[in-house]
């Protein structure tokens, strides 16, 4: 049985070392810039700033979505109201046509009644009875 060889990869170690050095320099820089105790406040401000940026972006997106929805609702409402007004006008025109036809038919019926009465009077005078 062979034992697995433990080889150290120098390039990986160097990269890890570089990252460690960069992190250490960043931490040292923070300590030099900020006195003791204020580092915690600085971290909180960075977190709050990032949260506010995310929240403000979300608020802008929500406001624009609300605005677009509101505009679409207004357009649809306007279209529906226009359609209802159009239907009311069409119905009124049809009702006017039907009313004028009924009046004309009423006149025709009255004329037919007069003619029927005249015919009946004439038949009664002439002596022909049914």
Automatic annotation (TrEMBL):
Please indicate if the UniProt record lists Membrane as a keyword: yes
Q: Which InterPro entries match?
A: DUF4577
Q: Which residues cross the membrane?
A: 65-89
Which keywords fit this entry according to its UniProt record? Membrane, Transmembrane, Transmembrane helix
Name of this protein: LSME1 protein
Q: What is the lineage of its organism?
A: Eukaryota, Metazoa, Chordata, Craniata, Vertebrata
Q: Which gene encodes it?
A: Lsmem1
């Amino acid at each position: 049985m062979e034992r697995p060889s433990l080889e150290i990869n120098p390039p990986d170690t160097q990269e890890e070392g570089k990252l460690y050095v960069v992190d250490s320099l960043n931490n040292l820089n923070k300590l030099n810039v900020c006195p003791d105790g204020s580092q915690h406040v600085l971290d909180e401000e960075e977190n709050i700033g990032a949260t506010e940026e995310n929240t403000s972006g979300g608020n802008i997106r929500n406001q624009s979505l609300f605005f677009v929805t509101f505009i679409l609702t207004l357009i649809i409402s306007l279209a529906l109201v226009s359609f209802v007004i159009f239907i009311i006008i069409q119905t009124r025109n049809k009702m006017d046509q039907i009313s004028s036809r009924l009046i004309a038919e009423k006149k025709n019926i009255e004329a037919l009644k007069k003619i029927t009465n005249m015919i009946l009077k004439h038949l009664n005078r002439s002596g022909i009875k049914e």
